[in-house]
């Protein structure tokens, strides 16, 4: 009808195509830093781990409240400055990940009836255990809250079809129990430690624990001794305060970023980078400082490269020992013996529960480390046997993220630093 209007349509279409191409090119440049499916799954697992380990109230959690039910009352264990809530679709996605996560065992909350709980039950409990009829009733209830949810409609059809093909399961217990195993019994102790707010040892209760300014007889520490705190005798654990500067901690984190994922919660448990002294000058300074305070040879191959670890949403480390217990371990390919000692440096500010970096399971106690501080302990007895009391774990991070640098020192190369004993039992 109007040639000028047609001309404008052509011009606008051409500009739109140019804009779309520019958007695509921008997306390609950013694609590596955008979350992927595994990031979504890792974040969901992190939320479930927080709920499970800290016994968080599910109904409160989906409303942005980190609470635990104690004697019938909701007790806040963390109050975020901003309370975001989970939608029904969010809960469904978390529940779907829970269903696919076969190693995860979920206990059904006592309070039922909310949309979020129903979704949680549906995906994580009843359908997984074969209680299809109850899953169907919950799905139908969900449609009352969200009648346009095509995914729930699909599930209703699927459950109805399954019920037509096989009779419903009756007397299905709603409480899913963890299997009885030594590993999970250890995990229960670990979770109890994470849930308990403990404090540093009181020196007056054990006069053998002390603080001092430590030089280790090294000339490099004479003018500026290190602040040493003996916090445990069995196992032997030392805390060195202000071991690295803030600038050094920041540099180590920045050097490690290319080696870890773009998203802190990727793989959830932790992300790892290895830093060599030859590539990063600050790593050499830290290595030399470790040698000064411990007297140990920390140069490869007698020690491993500095391992930098990042913990994100729900990031944790299950109970473990650092020394290996099998002669077939790949660690022995280095031909430098077992991991005789561990030096761990804390690189981030204290966040809720991220400061609980080390919980000794066998001694049933917690050890705290502080920002820029470092922990040192022996993994092996003097006779070379593993010290079972060093079984430890990292509690899931509730808020923020946690950066830790680890230095594992091996047996060989320490012959004149850690002398043998005349007593073979030591």
From TrEMBL:
Q: What class of enzyme is it?
A: oxidoreductase
Reading the lineage from the top rank, the first entry is: Eukaryota
Enzyme Commission code(s) on record? 1.14.11.2
Domain named Fe2OG dioxygenase: residues: 302-411
- Cited Gene3D superfamilies: q2cbj1_9rhob like domain, Tetratricopeptide repeat domain
Subcellular location(s) of the protein: Endoplasmic reticulum lumen
The cofactors named for this UniProt entry are:
L-ascorbate
List the keywords (alphabetical): Dioxygenase, Endoplasmic reticulum, Glycoprotein, Iron, Metal-binding, Oxidoreductase, TPR repeat, Vitamin C
Q: Name one GO molecular function term.
A: procollagen-proline 4-dioxygenase activity
- Chief subcellular site? endoplasmic reticulum
SMART domains reported in the protein's UniProt record: P4Hc
Q: Which GO terms describe its cellular component?
A: endoplasmic reticulum lumen
What InterPro entries does UniProt report for this protein, alphabetically? Answer: Oxoglu/Fe-dep_dioxygenase_dom (IPR005123), P4H_N (IPR013547), P4HA-like (IPR045054), Pro_4_hyd_alph (IPR006620), Pro_4_hyd_alph_FE2OG_OXY (IPR044862), TPR-like_helical_dom_sf (IPR011990), TPR_P4H (IPR059068)
Instruction: Name the job this protein performs.
Output: Catalyzes the post-translational formation of 4-hydroxyproline in -Xaa-Pro-Gly- sequences in collagens and other proteins.
> Into which family does the record put it?
Belongs to the P4HA family.
Mind telling me what this protein is named?
procollagen-proline 4-dioxygenase
Q: Give the species this sequence originates from.
A: Sinocyclocheilus anshuiensis
């Amino acid at each position: 009808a109007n040639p000028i209007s047609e001309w404008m349509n052509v011009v606008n279409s051409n500009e739109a195509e140019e804009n779309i191409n520019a958007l695509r090119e921008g997306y390609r440049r950013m694609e590596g830093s955008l979350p992927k499916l595994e990031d979504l799954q890792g974040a969901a697992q992190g939320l479930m781990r927080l709920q499970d380990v800290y016994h968080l109230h599910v109904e409160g959690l989906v409303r942005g409240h980190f609470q635990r039910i104690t004697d019938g009352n909701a007790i806040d264990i963390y109050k975020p400055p901003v309370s975001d809530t989970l939608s029904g679709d969010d809960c469904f996605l978390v529940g779907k990940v829970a269903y696919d996560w076969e190693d995860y065992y979920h206990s059904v909350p006592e309070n039922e009836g909310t949309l979020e709980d129903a979704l949680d039950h549906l995906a994580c409990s009843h359908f997984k255990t074969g209680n299809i009829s109850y899953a169907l009733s919950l799905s139908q209830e969900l449609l009352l809250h969200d009648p346009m949810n095509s995914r729930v409609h699909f599930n209703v059809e699927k459950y109805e079809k399954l019920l037509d093909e096989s009779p419903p399961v009756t007397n299905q217990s709603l409480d899913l129990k963890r299997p009885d195993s030594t590993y999970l019994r250890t995990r229960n102790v670990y979770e109890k430690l994470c849930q308990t707010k403990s404090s540093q040892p009181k020196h007056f209760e054990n006069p053998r624990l002390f603080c001092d300014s430590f030089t280790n007889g090294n000339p490099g520490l004479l003018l500026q001794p290190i602040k040493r705190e003996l916090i445990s005798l069995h196992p032997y654990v030392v805390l060195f305060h202000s071991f690295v500067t803030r600038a050094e901690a920041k540099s180590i984190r920045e050097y490690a970023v290319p080696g870890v994922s773009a998203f802190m919660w990727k793989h959830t448990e932790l992300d790892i980078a290895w830093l060599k002294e030859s590539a990063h000058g600050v790593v050499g300074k830290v290595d030399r400082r470790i040698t000064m305070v411990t007297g140990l040879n920390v140069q490869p191959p007698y020690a491993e490269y500095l391992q930098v670890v990042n913990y994100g949403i729900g990031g944790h480390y299950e109970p473990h020992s650092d020394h290996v217990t099998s002669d077939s371990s790949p660690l022995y390919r280095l031909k430098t013996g077992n991991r005789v000692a561990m030096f761990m440096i804390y690189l981030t500010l204290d966040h809720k529960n991220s400061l609980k970096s080390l919980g000794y399971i066998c001694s049933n106690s917690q050890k705290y480390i502080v920002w820029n501080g470092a922990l040192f302990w022996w993994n092996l007895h003097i006779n070379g046997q593993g010290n079972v009391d060093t079984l430890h774990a990292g509690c899931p991070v509730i808020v923020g993220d946690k950066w830790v640098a680890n230095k594992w020192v091996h047996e060989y190369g320490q012959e004149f630093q850690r002398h043998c004993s005349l007593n073979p039992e030591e």
